[in-house]
Amino acid sequence: MSAAESAPERELTDDEKHLARLGYSQELSRSWSSFSNFAISFSIISILAGCLTTYGAGIANGGPVSISWSWPIISVFILIIGFTMSELVSAMPTSGGIYYWASKLGGPAAGFFTGWLNLIGLVAVTASVAYGCATFFELTFLAWGWADEFSLNVVFVIFLVILTFITVVNIFSSHLLAVINNVSVWWHVAGAAFLVGVLIIVPDQHLSVSQVFTDKFNGSGWADGSTSSLVYFLAIIPFGFILTQYTITGFDASVHLSEETQGAANSAAKGIWQSIFYSAVGGYILLLAVTFAIPQVDGVPDYASIPAGGVAYVFDTALGSTWGGLLLFISSCAQLFCATACLTSTSRMMFAFSRDRAVPGSRFWSKVNAQRTPANAVIFAAVLGAIITLPALKSVNGIPTAFYAVTSVSVIGLYFSFAIPIYLRWRAGDSFEVGTWNNGSKYKWMNLVAVIEIVVVGIMLMLPTSPFGAPWRDEFDWAAVNYAPLMVLGVLLVLALWWTLSARKWFTGPVRTIDQAVVDAFKD
After folding, report:
1. Contact between 435 and 269 (Cβ < 8 Å)
2. What is the DSSP string of 169-186?
3. Which among 135, 153, 212, 383 is least surrounded, fewest beta carbons within 10 Å?
4. Burial class (CB in 10 A: 0-12, 13-18, 19+), 144
5. Selection from 10, 108, 72 nearest residue 511 by Cα
6. Closest Cα to residue 70, out of 54, 85, 91, 90?
7. Residue 275 in contact with residue 38, Cβ under 8 Å?
8. How far apart are CA 132 and CA 507, in angstroms?
């Protein structure tokens, strides 16, 4: 007997009634608490991952001011984005909610493009976190003397091992994943506190407050290293926004896990904005601690060594190999938690999008196993993540430009997918039926600010961050190309052709998996 036929035989919970009104039967196990929902977004944001893996990009593009000023400013804008999404998930708490909202507010075409941008962004963020995790484990082994030299080939092998491990973990029960994410929160809190304490106590010297909040540096290669030209302020510093925008992303996990969360209309809404807020505060403290500990050579801060060496150079030089290795190990484990959570979120989006028949082979990807987890979607996301990260086998001047390109793809895909339903909700105005958690009349300015921030930062992240990646320069090298715009624009072109020639004829938006009679029977 189907779920739709058996549903009236028992009293549905409020969550199941809400999901039924949205058109879906309860297929996934609703075993996640409010804290677990917050925990997965907090784990994916992971200040011990994003803050440290892209620290070199922040210093290279602006220097300390790119850390001390850009982080809190961009964090406020991202919190506004979070508030707008909290309102949407409270009204429509469903897995794959990002594209579901777009479909309901803007029609099938809006849902189709939103869903694919979100799915691509999630696959890319999973790949980038797993690769960053592999890099940090390799750096840990180097610091402890377990490896002789840094090797991109070895990093890629570790990356594949990590993908395999998190795939196996994700195929087990949803409840196990909830427990893992709960543990992850405390690992991040205790780990970050430990890192900050060590960075304050152990180094023999620190930068001054003035240096941390006023020093500028341009290690991008653009404008001949100038820190006073318009290029520095209008392009170089914005290139450094990737540090904040990449770190504080993936909070849509609270949306994708809403069908497995109790009291989802409130829990998922709070999970989004609270994970952003606490990560922004904790991340800022961590970044300041790292920046104060930047090594000095002959009394001058050695900013130039950071773009290639990253935070590992700061740890090793300021703390020594033993302490440095320990901090790298703590961060590596945190990134493993983060990668696990990323794959969970990606698989739920894949499951939901396939449930609505938007993905080729949708019947296969929307299947759940005996543990009620979408195992096929998990495997698909991991394999695709490995494929798009293949360019990371090459580096330019020791800098893994392909890694930063993958991070850019993840940021652009995810945030652009957020922008579409945020704009459509603004366009709907007061006709939008809000949930129990909402922004009131403040949506009128909050949603516009959110969309503008996403568009501006997205454009900046598609520009060549190095002269070596600019086709019009003599020093052009394909290995240094920021392939984020090529991938994003290429995907948009493919999607446009696919939609025009085929998808518009069969994709009609969310597909009901529950009989209308059941919906009517359990209406409040």
Report:
1. yes
2. HHHS-HHHHHHHHHHHHH
3. 153
4. middle
5. 108
6. 54
7. yes
8. 36
pLDDT per position as a tens digit, 294-319: 999 988 999 999 987 889 999 999 99
Residue listed under structure tokens 């935070």: 311
Q: At a CB cut-off of 8 Å and minimum separation 6, what does 94 contact?
A: 19, 22, 24, 100, 255, 258, 259, 352
CA neighbours closer than 13 Å in the CB half-sphere of residue 418: 37
Residue type, 133: C
Mean pLDDT of 267-291: 96
For residue 291, what are its two tokens? 């920046």
Distance CA 267, CA 308 (A): 41
pLDDT digits (tens, 9 = 90+) for 179-229: 888 888 899 999 999 999 999 999 999 999 999 999 999 988 888 888 988
Query: CA nearest 348: which of 441, 276, 261?
Result: 261
Full 3-state SS string of 33-54: CHHHHHHHHHHHHCCCCHHHHC
Q: Name residue, tokens 């695709």.
A: 384
Let me know: does 295 contact 317? Beta carbons within 8 Å.
yes
**End-to-end Cα spacing for the chain:** 26
Half-sphere exposure of residue 157: CA atoms within 13 angstroms, side-chain side: 6
- The pTM score is 0.87
Between the CA atoms of 219, 222, 227 and 232, what dihedral angle is there, to the nearest 10 degrees? -120
